[in-house]
Structures are given as structure tokens and as C-alpha cells.
Amino acid sequence: MPPPICELLIRLKSQQTENRWLRGDSYICGYERCICINAVGRWMKLEYLSCNFDFALLRNDLCHTSSSRLLTSCVPLKQIQEWLSHSDFSTTANSYAHNGCVV
Questions:
Q1: Under a CB-based contact definition with an 8 Å cutoff, are residues 5 and 68 in contact?
Q2: Which of 20, 26, 47, 89 is the most buried (most CB within 10 A)?
Q3: Domain range spanning residue 66?
Q4: What share of the chain has pLDDT > 90, as a percent?
């Protein structure tokens, strides 16, 4: 697992522990094994995760890691460009072409 992902998971677990302590009896138990729970312990809705996924990637510097992994898995560079919302193909190509399988 890439180090940024490990660091993110450790931070999330630490935040969950802190939230459980801060909320006391009002914290909803039962989702402790889940990653995506909110500050009160409730499982996050899929809509929230979908809307905030790109922001989370950018905030945690995971775009580059994810894009590099996609490229080394031979995902076409054009698809990576669209996923990253690069308006110019050369931006994506210049950033990731050195990482492996360019399709």
C-alpha cells in the first residue's frame, strides 16, 4: 500500500478515536471497523463520499499516487486525463509518461 494511503488511514483511525472520546455516550457504536464514518460514528452516505472524493484526493496528495498506479496498470493515458480533468492531453502526458505503460 502506498505510504500516503497508510498515513491517511492512520489519521482517520486516530480521528475516530478522538471523536468517540469527545462524543462519549452520544457516539454511535457499531461501525468501528469502517473507514468512512462521520464525527458521531454514523456510516457516511455514498452521496457525501462521491461529492467529496476529488477534494479528499487533492487534500491528501493522492492524485499523483493514484494516477501513477493507474498508468503502471496500463490504463490508457486519455482516461487518466479525463479522470484528472486536465483540459490538455499534454499536461497529463508530461506529468505521467515517465511512469510506465503509456497506452
A1: no
A2: 20
A3: 62-103
A4: 9
